[in-house]
Amino acid sequence: MKSTGQPTINDVARIAGVSKKTVSRVINRSPLLNQATREKVEAVIAELAYVPNPQARALALRRNFLLGLIHDNPNAQMVLNFQEGVLDAIQGTEFALVVRPVDRHSPSLFDDIRKFIEQQRLYGVMILPPLSENDALAALFRELGCNYVRMGSAPLDDAAHLVQSNDRQAVRDAVAYLVAQGHTRIGLVQGPDGFRSAAERELGWHDAMEAAGLPHGPDLMARGNYTFETGREAGGKLIDAAEPPSAIFASNDVMAAGVLHAARGRGLDVPQDLSIVGFDDTAIATAIWPPLTTVRWPIRTMARSAALKLIDPEAASGEQSLFPTDFIARASVAPR
Amino acid sequence: MKSTGQPTINDVARIAGVSKKTVSRVINRSPLLNQATREKVEAVIAELAYVPNPQARALALRRNFLLGLIHDNPNAQMVLNFQEGVLDAIQGTEFALVVRPVDRHSPSLFDDIRKFIEQQRLYGVMILPPLSENDALAALFRELGCNYVRMGSAPLDDAAHLVQSNDRQAVRDAVAYLVAQGHTRIGLVQGPDGFRSAAERELGWHDAMEAAGLPHGPDLMARGNYTFETGREAGGKLIDAAEPPSAIFASNDVMAAGVLHAARGRGLDVPQDLSIVGFDDTAIATAIWPPLTTVRWPIRTMARSAALKLIDPEAASGEQSLFPTDFIARASVAPR
DNA sequence: GCAATTTGGGAAACCGGTGTCAATATGTGC
DNA sequence: GCACATATTGACACCGGTTTCCCAAATTGC
């Protein structure tokens, strides 16, 4: 007779006058169960406020109900939105979300992740860019028999293991908008080497410039690494060129803010002297002046989809895995 | 003979030629164990890459190794830094971090949290502001027998359940800095009603103004709710006043960015015409122009401390629970 | 050299669930 | 009224660890 602690299935069984197994059947909505029995047991469950012990279930079922999120992303808002999206998906289920920030430059990265997976025996993991672009890492998950979903900006894997946005198309459209505003020299601040998203966004710029018959040589390109400071440097380089652009597309919002900073430091007015477009629509896009024209991708929805793919692959197989982006026009672009 | 799946304690015991219990003793570093036996078992463990099943351990020990993080914070960078700090603390242990974003305005907030705690049977939870300021919530955790630590800007609880920064002192110092720069009319953009941090920061401003014998009436105060937009409105209100301030302290960085925005919209130069100071030192502080003078609080260290308090209360009892802040002088302040 | 005391390690029960399979009612066809 | 199918429930082993209890071997004291 234990009075302390939460009630167990044995307590419920004893009080309801049935066997453990019957209680288990009620919990799991087994169809072969008498209605009267079910109601009797449910009444006791409600009375005791009984909640099944997930650890015991995990042990018996040989799988737990933990979803992992592995990330090393410089964009906090993005990571948090992703977490919220996962929560949308697991709301009301017995799943929980375990987070694991990592350092992608750590030499022990793979060991750390392996240890994490083996220790926690996760039901599945979700991987955020840029880690998600690492095929060796995906191979590790397969080797460990751990279900996974990668979040990406381009085809990395089969649909079952991926949620993605079409960054190339999105940037193509964004740059086409600049062209429609009369801009003919449009600079590009590239993202870092090794980021798939950076490569895709560069391709989008390239596509749009080529389609419009506009120049798109290396003198219109400068590389950053998704940080404010590198965006400022790259922007400065483009602005200081012999033939500076009248508009710049930066591969993310933070770098776009850097470009803005560089322009202002040189006495340029944005958007009159220079139009700027970013990517991500994070909080900074509306926290700077002028507010930034940018591209929003539905990260929360994508996160929900990623979690569903892990929880219930069959049900999610009908779900899309390529998500559309939104172009958000704000005051940082003016007609030429 | 199971070839698939991870090795269990039984596999180790069989191969090492000892009993389960002996293996368990090795894992738990029981002292009453022969050195030779220990080494033999350890060799087998290493060979099989055996990792104890945390679910089974959790079941047998009647407690699991999950730390929960409950938050509803508008500041993504802060939440993420906190997560990283917790990870610092649990690195190398068997603990994992489970996150749970919530909506503090949801009518089912308490039910949701109660369900979360009961379902997951967490080892302990950490609560971030502003949720951490809710005493009824703390009472809920006590009722549920769930260990908790609150993160706060002022005394909310006994030291064992709290990590805090001294916001009042920090703001007092920051405003004193403005006074030292020759400013005599210094405005305050308050944080939202009901936020303890907002109240503390307001007190700090009040302290400093009073100490300097400067005016600190309601005409120098305007309220925001920690968002950019409200910061912009509050800043506009102060600037448009009959006798506008030459410097403004905003209770967080995002609102400070809003004030900057408002100033620029009215043709003021920052810092020449208006000096601005923020609070938090989040990413936005250096992503705007001019970079923001602000106050940094050691959130990552505080998070580490919070996690330690949960994991090992005795060891952490010596730890401080009041953390010092840093004043970060940048270009958004100029002498009057 | 023998009893007393440590020390090392095993057997079995247990944590709180689930799966398998058999047992017990109930209903059906003849 | 009887053999048989079917619906409902329970007994028991099991998931992979830990704890309790106890015994055998090794060491010590005399």
Automatic annotation (TrEMBL), chains A, B:
Family matches, as SMART domains: HTH_LACI
Domain HTH lacI-type: 7-61
InterPro entries: HTH_LacI, LacI/GalR-like_sensor, Lambda_DNA-bd_dom_sf, Peripla_BP_I
PROSITE patterns: HTH_LACI_1, HTH_LACI_2
Superkingdom in the source lineage: Bacteria
Keywords: DNA-binding, Transcription, Transcription regulation
Name of this chain's protein: LacI family DNA-binding transcriptional regulator
SUPFAM superfamilies found in the cross-reference section: lambda repressor-like DNA-binding domains, Periplasmic binding protein-like I
CDD domains: HTH_LacI, PBP1_SalR
An annotated Gene Ontology molecular function: DNA binding
